[in-house]
């Protein structure tokens, strides 16, 4: 995806398709992903890039070891 807005729109469309086909596991996965994207967008309104999974994880869990940044 080129932007977070495109990714959000794609997930919303795929959720509707998965619901129509009765694919509940995919609906749950996409709903979780959509929630993470919307939270990221809310926390970083000026940032328009499509965040990767690590960026989404660290936005939600900044104190996790994978997300800590140390200054030397």
Distance between the termini: 34 Å
Q: How many distinct beta strands?
A: 0
Globally, the shape reads: elongated
Major sheet: size, sense and barrel closure? none
Q: What string gives the helices and strands in order?
A: HHH
Strand content range: under 5%
User: Structural class, judged by helices and strands?
Assistant: mainly alpha
Number of helices: 3
Number of domains: 1
Rounded to the nearest angstrom, the radius of gyration is 14 Å
The helical percent reads: 55-70%
Quick structural gist:
With 72 residues, the protein is mostly helical. Helix content is 64%, strand content 0%. The N and C termini lie far apart (34 Å).
Helix/strand layout:
Blueprint lengths: L3 H18 L2 H20 L9 H8 L12
Helix pairs in contact: 1-2, 2-3
Properties at a glance:
72 residues; mainly alpha; 3 helices; 0% strand; elongated; CP12_dom; CP12 domain-containing protein
Structural features, described:
It comes from Prochlorococcus marinus XMU1408. This protein has 72 residues and is mainly alpha-helical. The protein has three helices and no strands. Helix 1 runs antiparallel to helix 2 and helix 2 crosses helix 3. The longest helix has 20 residues. The mean pLDDT is 94.
